[in-house]
Amino acid sequence: MSEQPPLQEPLERLPLAKQPVLRQVTKILIPFVIVFGLYVITHGDYGPGGGFQGGVILAAAYILFALVYGVARARRVIPRKATDVLAAVGVLFYGAVGLVGLFGGGTFLDYDFLGTDPASAQALGMFLVELGVGLTVASVMVTVFTEMVEA
Amino acid sequence: MIHVYGAALLALLVSMFLFLGRAALGPTVYDRLLATNAFGTKTVIFVALLGFFAGRPEFLDMALVYALINFVTTVAVLKLVQEARLDR
Predict the structure, then answer these.
(1) Are A114 and A125 in contact (CB under 8 A)?
(2) Residue B7, burial from CB neighbour count under 10 angstroms (0-12, 13-18, 19+)
(3) What angle do CA B16, A33, A47 make, to 5 degrees?
(4) Cross-chain residue pair A67–B75, CB shorter than 8 Å
């Protein structure tokens, strides 16, 4: 039997992942970046931030992983198909939230139909819309990065 | 207290311009990289201080984002300089 090439290069052969400091710092940093991205998405209505900014931060976590561990490994974590689907799902989610108001008898993106109390309905609507935006932006950013990087 | 913040902001601006000069002049690419990275770190402190100076401490969120993005950028540029490609 001939020697089959490994599906993925070992970590020691990757230019950045063979450096222990960089590898460990990345491992420690990525969860915090993801939590911070989710914080920016969900607190977009109280402080600076929002769906777009949070989505970019989420994508930055993935890009950091792809830079250090290589795109092949990163694509095993989140495959191309997943980002393609998630980008569409985010937009559809946004549209679906808007349609709730339309079918409830109001206008498109009328949040008041999402709950009984107008204030909490507005907050919920904003949160759901931001969630859709964040999902789409994160997926598209990941797609842009990987498409540009893969020769 | 606002005078202290103002003085610190001015001092930071001066040092940021020094780093910009090093980034423009730097004989090797690593000088430029180090200058840009240090400039990014100064920006983090600048944004944080600006938040307290303007009485809006939520600027700290932005400083945090800048710190994270600065790290990712430095890693990416270093990899590009060393490998001339980013995918492995």
Answers:
(1) yes
(2) exposed
(3) 75
(4) yes
Q: Averaged in consecutive runs of 10 residues, what is the pLDDT profile of chain A (151 residues)? A: 63 81 92 93 82 93 91 88 94 91 83 81 88 94 90 66
Considering only CB atoms, which chain B residues are within 8 Å of A149?
85-87
Residues A151, B86: Cα–Cα separation, whole Å: 9
Q: How far is B34 from chain A (nearest CA, A)?
A: 16
Say yes or no for a CB contact (<8 Å) between B71 and A149: no
Q: What is the pTM of this model?
A: 0.86
CB atoms within 10 A of CB A111: 22
Decide if B45 contacts B67 (C-beta within 8 A).
no
Domain ranges for chain A, please list them. 11-149
In chain A, whose CA is at the least distance from the CA of B79? Answer: A16
Give me the residue spans of the domains in chain B: 2-83
Token digits of residue B31: 């000088």
Taking an 8 Å cut-off on Cβ atoms, the answer to whether A67 and B76 are in contact is: yes
Nearest CA in chain B to A70: B88
Distance CA B16, CA B11 (A): 9
pLDDT in tens, B17-59: 999 999 999 889 999 999 999 999 999 999 999 999 998 888 8
The answer to whether A63 and A148 have CB atoms below 8 angstroms apart is: no
Q: Hey, are the CB atoms on B65 and A36 less than 8 Å from each other?
A: yes
Task: Give residue-wise pLDDT tens across range A85-104.
Answer: 999 999 999 999 888 888 88
Q: What is the predicted ipTM?
A: 0.85
| Contact status of A6 with chain B (Cβ, < 8 Å) | no
